[in-house]
UniProtKB/TrEMBL annotation:
InterPro entries for this protein: CheY-like_superfamily, LytR-like, LytTR_DNA-bd_dom, Sig_transdc_resp-reg_receiver
Name of protein: Two component transcriptional regulator, LytTR family
Organism from which the protein derives: Siphonobacter aquaeclarae
Modified residues (4-aspartylphosphate): 53
Record keywords, A-Z: Phosphoprotein
Domain Response regulatory: 2-114
Domain spans labelled HTH LytTR-type: 141-249
MF annotations from Gene Ontology: DNA binding; phosphorelay response regulator activity
Amino acid sequence: MKALIVDDERLARNELKRLLENFPKVHIVGEAANADEAIQLIDELKPDLLFLDIQMPGKNGFELLQSLEGDVPEVIFTTAYDEYAIKAFEQNALDYLLKPVELSRLTEAIQRAEEEIHHHELEQQGRTDGTAKVLTENDQIFIKDGEKCWFVRLGKVRLFESMGNYVRLHFDDQKPLVLKSLNALEDRLDSKTYFRANRKHIINLNYIDKIEPWFSGGLLATLRSTAEKPEKIEISRRQAIRFKELLSL
């Protein structure tokens, strides 16, 4: 398991490296003192796991994650502040460790990371074997969330939203959760209809009502829905380039 440590405090990085010596399966491939260094190293080294501080000079840890595209490493936040915990888990973090990091809590986080990465490897193996059928908008899908069940045409789903280890499907006025990663789901969807807008959302192109310019070269898509308040999804800068290439004449 390749890990990258991102923290602006050298002493904090050294202490975490010392603790990680207790985990022979974790191979530290690099360390960064700020977000810009980290983004470059993530692109070069392709780590499986990110130990990420939140408050750093320049971009903070959340802004770093928002800058990443494609396959994003699993994230364990390490911080001296507890007020960011909810936001951290909204970013699909595996765990949230308070400094000074305790070995027992680090052990729990590493175990969770190993399970999640192993799960992704199994998903990838299934895709490599060609066992997963690509679904089109005309396919019927069965959805079960708790005691409720639905059997709907996939084309009715306007939005897929990552919620940690789950994905929320938006269709009609329903929003059930399914136990699946957004990356795994993306590989099952027809790219002519479904577009990865950012690391948390896949949108149905047929439901786009309006597109407008957004911050930093991105786009803002407004989706048609039965909700009183229209759903507005940001298309990241890099994905905005793909979006224009895909839909331009």
